From TrEMBL:
Pfam families: SapC. It comes from the Bacteria. InterPro entries: SapC (IPR010836). This is SapC family protein.
């Protein structure tokens, strides 16, 4: 269990944060307010917490652990708030850190300016923490409404590559457009008024990125020396 320290501009004046364009995982949890940004770069899917079995939403950043990251015309893709705030936690409403987290390195970006004010990097962490603090319960409620209407279903993702390799992505779920379009006018209107309908369509539209990611992976495999 990590030992947390409340963030302090005096005690942590020399602390530096490693800002890296690479992601630390191939699948990162996101909240509802991130859907419209995340869908520009990543497939958004649902999966279950291994401990609790509860559904949560996430952005698929790569096809499998250790796989090269998806690239969108050289533009840095959207970074989920859960990755921005790595190493930082909320403790009774205050920002705390795990000083042993690998994101803190001697050659990183300072967390504080010389006058003790938060740096741009720390302000980004503060925004990410705020997004998660308010967004997690909101997203849980949205997913509960999707489940109550039986809109979430398993998605079958089986990819074949030119070198003969195959890849299956198991344990993932998506909104069923058939179920969505079969909703009663009352339920559809309720989803629309809550803003859930927009999120449902954003999630289903984002799945198109899997085809692009598979093509990129196939191109890398084809270009690799025999």
């Amino acid at each position: 269990m990590a030992t947390l320290e409340l963030l302090n501009p005096v005690a942590h004046a020399g602390l530096r944060l490693r800002l890296t364009p690479r992601f630390s995982t191939h699948f990162a949890q996101i909240v509802a307010s991130e859907f419209l940004q995340a869908m520009q770069d990543h497939p958004i899917l649902f999966t279950k917490h291994p401990e609790t079995g509860a559904f949560y939403a996430g952005a698929l950043l790569a096809l499998e652990p250790g796989d090269a990251l998806s690239d969108n015309a050289g533009v840095e893709p959207y970074r989920p708030a859960d990755l921005v705030r790595q190493g930082f936690f909320l403790a009774e409403g205050n920002l705390a850190i795990d000083p042993d987290a690998p994101v803190f390195t001697p050659d990183g970006t300072p967390l504080f300016e010389a006058n003790g004010e938060p740096s741009d990097a720390l302000r980004g962490v503060q925004r990410a923490t705020h997004i998660l603090h308010h967004g997690l319960p909101e997203t849980d409620a949205i997913i509960a409404r999707f489940l109550a209407l039986r809109l979430i279903e398993p998605i079958d993702i089986a990819l074949n590559f030119d070198d003969g390799s195959r890849l299956r992505l198991d344990g993932l779920y998506s909104i069923s457009l058939d179920a969505l379009h079969a909703l009663s006018d009352r339920d559809a209107l309720d989803l629309f008024r809550r803003g859930d309908l927009q999120l449902a369509y954003a999630q289903t539209a984002s799945i198109q990125h899997i085809r692009r990611m598979a093509k990129q992976r196939n191109d890398r495999l084809s270009a690799a020396p025999a």
